[in-house]
Amino acid sequence: MAHSTATAAHGQSVWDGGTSPMGASYGKLMMWFFLLSDAFTFSGLLITYGLVRSSHPAFEGLVESFTFSTEYWPIPEKVFEAVPFLHGYSLPLVFVGIMTFILIMSSVTMVLAVEAGHRMDRQAVEKWMLWTLVGGIAFLGCQAWEWTHFIVGTDSPTLVKDFVNGQWITKEVTGASLTINQYGPQPFADFFFFITGFHGFHVFSGVMFNFLIYYNTVTGVYERRGHYEMVEKVGLYWHFVDLVWVFVFTFFYLV
Amino acid sequence: MAHHSNEPQVTVLPPDKEKIKKLWTVAAILGAVTAVEFVIAFTMSHGTAKTFLFVILTIVKAGYIVGEFMHLKYEVKVLFWAILIPILFIVWMLVAFVYEGMKMPVFN
Fold it and tell me: ipTM of this complex > 0.85?
């Protein structure tokens, strides 16, 4: 077998070459260390969000009486309360919850594909990789809808101060962009676009990798190679995308 | 498909029922924890206790994803610690930034 373990010949250190002291192939190790560096990138984004948020005033008062204003940081559940086909209903965090479940499910199907790969079961790998792809694409579709809703905005506009032609004016704003924001202080919209955008880009590239793995499985590349380790490596990446979403869900939407 | 003589002979092993059951259990736990988070989000009033609970539950979920799904719990100890110890830097980054964040209103 190509898989080497941490055991070395009698009386020899495992670090003297010839074995894999960490019990994992080069590719898998590098995937782990890449993900570690990626974890730092996402931590940077989320921690900066926390810093900027804590330096803005919070909304004082009852949650029920909350209205959008640039004077204080918005309550996330009041921003993300729309669900497709249910216009006008206030359903806080329901859609984000659906997205979370989609991503968890696609993580399970991925790990089932890895399990099937260990058994050299090509058909099962194909099946579970397809489900993983479906989950990933569904998540991206949800995110596209959420971004559209965030950009277009709510039914009633918010009064926002803006600097136009050398003077401050107050104007009605619906929706948000990188320069104007109806939901609260400008950094709130900027962080929304950067954090969910950076995560969404990871999901997108994950879907691309997953498709590549699916394609190679169907064409029998891994069967001829004798192992399905590529499924494991891409699986690590895919689980990491799910892991990041768990943190984004908590620190951007829940807290 | 026709069987080609140059195709390798592959032995497909039967599914590991025990392992698959465990994976679904982990998925159920992740779903349940998320459901609990939802309940907390709409029943508890905003404050430090709520944030603290969310952080704990998030770390529980992260532990299951990294430990079980990414299989880190079962890797060689050297690899396990090579991944976990650098996470301390993230903790440091969090402490440093939060400290700076508390000082920011003083500067402005």
Answer: yes
